[in-house]
Design goal:
551 residues; alpha/beta; five-stranded mixed beta sheet; five-stranded parallel beta sheet; disordered C terminus; binds 3-acetylpyridine adenine dinucleotide
Length: 551
């Protein structure tokens, strides 16, 4: 249905995206008496949980902590069914939040923001959507998500394939029935690792085309025990406080039990083989991404990291019966955790099925995709359907695909041509009143995203309150503060093993993208303290200015 575009309507704030970040930003702005407009490309709220509907999609942070903390009533009334919620359940939660707080009336769906230009004289952001909407506001919040632009691989012949082709992150809403089909999956990251066991149950034959194996830890997913939930909910405030301030490790805000907030041992190197094995086994049994937090120096010392990786290799070899497949599934080309660790339900076990096969593209690369399948250097593999689980142009993709221009018409694309630069991951110098929620340079993807979203939005709201009290209308990052922060983010990353991963954290999965380690790796607790310190010191590193409207 054709939509009537909005023409030059004036708002107090424009928010791009109606995922969790956009919803919370709208809720807070409205609470502050501001009139905000949200533009969203999808036809519903939910962001990443709206788009990623591939079979098996679920969160890799536990439901009880992957949820908003801003409303005690919401956190008490919402009932999660499983330890790790499925995509449909998380989407229902996002919809519930939108309805419960009556947020939809300020959201315009099926409108993708094409450009946002800062007009210096009135001090306004002028935003245009692909549907022709034009809106203006002194404030613009980018809630565009870190993993929202699919990366389509440049494989020869991709468009020649005559069967059905699916992108994991753009899955058909009506679902796909693979019953009786020969299915190929390209990719071996989190999306593929979740989808493969489910597709295997339907397909007559499943072939997984893997270029680089990933480390995966079992989720040990299960229905949530009502007694445990009740107990957890009784102490929700304390849990939230720990998630917001707790850990100094790379992963922040995903812990459930008190023991998970500190490593079981500070260094793998001081442990006997038996001790190391016992700790790794215990954390493997807890399951999930926090396995990386079991030993304190896993992400710092190559030697320690290798010991932990060896443990996972042993697990893979124990589970996967065919030794050649097991070896191909053991990652050896990068330290464990430097590519985002995966969390699975029966992934490795799936390769014990007779109708599932792994093709190791390191030994037999794809030559081209043909009409009826894939031709590798060794063989022709006939396929009815092809699933691309090939990842995202992460963290900067969604921002740079818009035409964003700041002071003097400077394009964000040009400013970031050698990699993203933003003070605290929140604001780029030269782009006044443009806030990036969980932008590059903040903990973002190395943390529980909802914890980091709430922290950023709360910081922005406090900042706006300060501006109101002072009677100023503009804020921007100073170039010096931005410079120092970018250097600090690099320094922190360089003290870890993260940059050795050749991962999407570094932009390494997108041809031609500058290799810069994008998230801030010091953890959510230290980052929050820095932000609080900045605010307490007169928003050190930010420049306040009156809008020229008042001049
Ligand atoms: O993407 P990925 P993803 N030929 O980039 C392969 C989040 N997430 O969508 O490594 C052959 O990890 C590529 O191979 P290689 C989570 O943060 C979370 O799976 O480049 N293969 C790789 O194997 C995650 O980290 C959940 O050699 C090609 C795969 O495609 C992030 O999203 C679930 C290729 C891409 O893996 C991204 O995960 C899902 C080519 N030309 C996602 N090009 C949760 O659990 C690429 N590949 C919450």
């Amino acid at each position: 249905m054709a939509k009537t575009p909005e023409q030059d309507e004036r708002f107090d704030a424009i928010i791009v995206g109606a995922g969790f970040a956009g919803l919370y930003a709208l809720y807070r702005l409205r609470g502050a008496g501001l009139r905000a407009r949200v533009y969203e490309a999808g036809d519903n709220v939910g962001g990443t949980w709206y788009w990623n509907r591939y079979p098996g999609a679920r969160c890799d942070a536990e439901s009880l902590v992957y949820s908003f903390s801003f409303s005690e009533a919401l956190e008490q009334e919402w009932e999660w069914s499983e330890r790790y919620a499925t995509q449909p359940e998380i989407l229902r939660y996002a919809e519930h939040v939108a309805d419960r707080f009556d947020l939809r009336r300020d959201i315009r769906f099926e409108r993708r923001v094409a450009s946002a230009h800062f007009d210096e004289i009135p001090g306004l952001w002028r935003v245009v959507t692909d549907q022709g909407d034009r809106a203006q506001a002194p404030l613009c919040l980018m809630a565009t998500g870190c993993l929202s632009v699919p990366q389509i691989p440049d494989i020869p012949g991709l468009d020649d394939f005559a069967g059905q082709r699916y992108q994991a992150s753009l899955w058909p809403h009506e679902g796909v029935d693979f019953e009786g089909q020969r299915v190929g999956v390209i990719g071996a990251g989190s999306s593929a690792i979740q989808a493969v066991p489910i597709i295997a149950e339907q397909a007559s034959r499943l072939t997984v085309f893997q270029r680089t194996p990933n480390f995966s830890v079992p989720a040990h997913n299960a229905a949530l025990d009502p007694e445990f939930v009740e107990e957890f909910k009784t102490h929700y405030r304390e849990h939230r406080r720990l998630h917001q301030r707790g850990l100094a490790s790379g992963f922040g805000g995903v812990e459930i039990q008190p023991k998970e907030f500190a490593p079981a041992a500070p260094s793998a190197l001081a442990l006997s083989d038996e001790q190391l094995d016992r700790i790794c086994e215990e954390w493997w049994e807890i399951g999930g991404a926090r396995f990386l937090g079991a030993i304190g120096d896993t992400m710092i010392s190559e030697e320690a990291n290798q010991l932990v990786a060896d443990f996972v290799h042993r697990k893979i070899r124990e589970i996967v019966k065919d030794p050649i497949t097991a070896e191909a599934l053991c990652p050896t080309s990068y330290p464990i955790g430097t590519k985002r660790i995966c969390v699975d339900t029966g992934y490795y076990e799936t390769y014990n099925r007779e109708d599932v096969r792994l093709v190791d593209l390191q030994t037999t690369p794809i030559e081209r995709i043909v009409r009826d399948g894939i031709q590798t250097t060794e063989e022709h593999i006939p396929l009815d359907s092809l699933v691309l689980a090939t990842g995202f142009d992460a963290m900067t993709g969604a921002l740079l695909r818009m035409d964003i221009r700041g002071r003097n018409g400077q394009r964000l694309r040009d400013k970031w041509s050698a990699g993203p630069r933003a003070y605290l991951g929140l604001m780029a110098a030269g782009f006044p009143n443009l806030f990036l929620i969980t932008g590059p340079g903040s903990p973002s993807v190395l943390s529980n995203m909802i914890v980091s979203i709430e922290q950023h939005v709360d910081f922005i709201m406090d900042c706006l309150e300060t501006m109101k009290i002072r009677g100023v209308e503009q804020i921007e990052a100073s170039p010096e503060a931005e410079e120092q922060w970018v250097a600090h983010v690099n320094e922190v990353a360089a003290a870890t093993l993260f940059p050795k991963g050749g991962s999407w954290y570094l932009g390494a999965n997108v041809p031609g993208k500058p290799r810069v380690f994008m998230p801030y790796a010091a953890g959510v607790g230290p980052y929050r303290k820095i932000c609080e310190d900045v605010a307490a010191n007169d928003y050190r590193g930010f420049i306040f200015g009156a809008s020229s409207r008042d001049a």
